[in-house]
Amino acid sequence: MVVDGNSSGNNDFRYSIRIPYVRTGTQIALVVMMNPATANNLVSDSTINNVLTRIYNERREVKEVIIVNLYPLYETYSSELELHQQQSELNFERISLLLNTVDFAVLGWGKPKGASARKLNEIKYHNHALKVISMLQQADIPAFKVGELREDLYPKHLGRAPFATLISEINLDYLSKKLRGIL
């Protein structure tokens, strides 16, 4: 496992976490979630465990999973997310570099619990999602989701979706258009 992260002031940031499977495979999956909760190079968490189990079971061709987030800030409670512009820009730069190494992406950033439209605007939530979608489109990376979009806009949080709900392709053009309609 390889973790790319740093600290700034009282905040900790994780840009990516790379986890190889102990099996033969040919593909690398990029998973895009909302923000890191607690997983680091020493300890996993339930969301990471659920993501790894899902991809391991559903996508036998995957040899490694790289997990990134819309926000690199460690925060257990999504309602407490903050915008850290400098780290966000660095996060997008690092995601962009990773796109050269992955075969497909699974989107699962959900929606911050109880977040108002004002809060989503304040932290530039839809802008961050649109930025990642645009990067995936430009790199021609196929994208997937679990189940249906929440509120026809948010890919379900991967740590909470039941395993019976399978990974399916997502139409990035459709999602991009919906997000642009909000901005």
TrEMBL record:
Origin: domain of life: Bacteria
Pfam families (UniProt xref): DUF1643 (PF07799)
Protein name in the entry: DUF1643 domain-containing protein
Organism, scientific name: Shewanella psychropiezotolerans
